Amino acid sequence: MEMFVSFCIVVLLAVIAFAGVELVNLQFLFGVIIPYAAFAVFVIGFINRVIQWGRSPVPFHIPTTCGQQKSLPWIKDSKLDNPSGTLGVIGRMALEVFFFRSLFRNLKTGLQNGELKYTGTKWLWLGGLIFHYSFFIVLLRHLRFFTNPVPSFVSYLDMVDGYFKSGAPHLLVTGWVLLGAVIYLFLRRAFIPGVRYISLTADYFPLFLIMGVALSGIIMRYYIKVDIVSVKELTMGLVTFSPVVPEGIGSIFFIHLFLICVLFAYFPFSKLMHMGGVFLSPTRNLPNNSRMRRHINPWNYDVKVHTYEEYEEEFRDKMKSVGLPVEKE
Amino acid sequence: MYDGGKIIIGLIIFLAIVTFPFYSNIGKANVKPAPDLNTPAIQELEEKKCIEPTGYMRANHMKLLKQWMDDLQEFDKDTYKASDCKVYDSSYDTCMECHVSQKNFCDRCHTYAAVKPYCWECHELD
């Protein structure tokens, strides 16, 4: 049901963009107003979300400890998996952000010949890594629509990505890899019963949305062509704050753009915020120095204590009069 | 805010990345490229049109050229029947009869859109 609803929403979104452009001629709305609005929602929403997280106290010192803690000098500590200082934390974060190390360490529990075994499962890690990197490269490649002259690294990326020099326009591998990876991530969710059981609309929707973005982009590049110069005129108009909507851009472009706008606007309110959140996960970004430094819960109430010295000071006479021993005469 | 300094530095980096297209274009005008259509062959044409309608050519010329190349290489077919039933030699030279110059025609839009077709790895420049 969740799956079906998400799928329908994405199809509906594409239909809205198509109808809006084809039937009602709302090119300016879909080409200028919605992109600006979506970008504003994305940036403000993102910052707001991160600040909200920043204001939440971390009550406990909870680094994940996947190796030997630093203790006695003759016990070898695991500097990356159980970092004790800032440098180690930076190393661990870098491994997490660039290589998804915690996912790499993912284990599967199962029975093998009647024995309980923990085996590594790398498929999710591999699929996720390919998905994120291909999406990243696709995003960088799109800088060619937002810069003029185009920086050399974007052209270089295009050259490497188009290594096969196949067809005209030449095949760019990452676009297809992105679509393949997102389909893999979806199939995994749909066919592994355990994963399916815990999947919600909020899990399926981004997958279908990204699938829609990738698919519409691929269709636009290879099949239903649009005039790319007019498209760049539109995108450059957006980034130079002199918006124009040139005549004769095909609806497939507006479908692609609208799906991206929805993705951007949806971003700050969804699980996609793990882009910012990964940097703020206490289990990853805290050094395991709990035996060196005391972590105080930030919301600890400043408790008023009445020490024994103060107690005795207050009741010394009474204590003496009933014969109770006192420490100070 | 807890660890406010670090979080704000992170947010500034985030802003610097996502607004890159905006600030890198400050002070630049959005100038559309103008491929040179003022060539003798085009001047002589009664009706100024390419072999297919302009909109189609703008979006699909690369597919057409690839089709021509495949036709020639695979089927030895060296003519193209346009949608208005006129027959053309499906050759790079047919394009260049009118458009003359790679530099003044092809490259203008290709540079703008950062497209590097591999036509000229075999065909002669200009």
What does the overall shape of chain A look like? elongated
Second-tier CATH architecture of chain A? Up-down Bundle
Helical percentage of chain B: 40-55%
Going across the biggest sheet of chain B, name each strand in turn: 1-2
What does the largest sheet of chain B look like? 2 strands, antiparallel
Query: What structural category do the secondary elements of chain B indicate?
Result: mainly alpha
CATH class category label of chain A: Mainly Alpha
- The helix count of chain A comes to 14
Report the biggest beta sheet of chain A as strand number plus sense, adding barrel if it closes. 2 strands, antiparallel
Structural class of chain A: mainly alpha
Strand and helix order of chain A: HHHHEEHHHHHHHHHH
State the separation between the terminal residues of chain A, measured CA to CA.
79 Å
Walkthrough of the structure:
The complex is a heterodimer of chains A (329) and B (126). Chain A has helices at residues 2-22, 27-55, 86-99, 101-104, 123-141, 152-161, 173-191, 193-197, 201-223, 228-239, 251-266, 274-277, 282-285, 308-321, and strands at 107-112, 115-120. Helices cover 59% and strands 4% of the residues of chain A. In chain A, strands 1-2 form a two-stranded antiparallel sheet. With 329 residues, chain A is mainly alpha-helical. Chain A has a single domain, classed as Fumarate Reductase Cytochrome B subunit (Up-down Bundle). Chain B is mostly helical. The mean pLDDT of chain B is 88. Classes of the chains: A mainly alpha (329), B mainly alpha (126). Chains A and B meet through α2, α6 and α10 of A and α1, α4 and α6 of B.
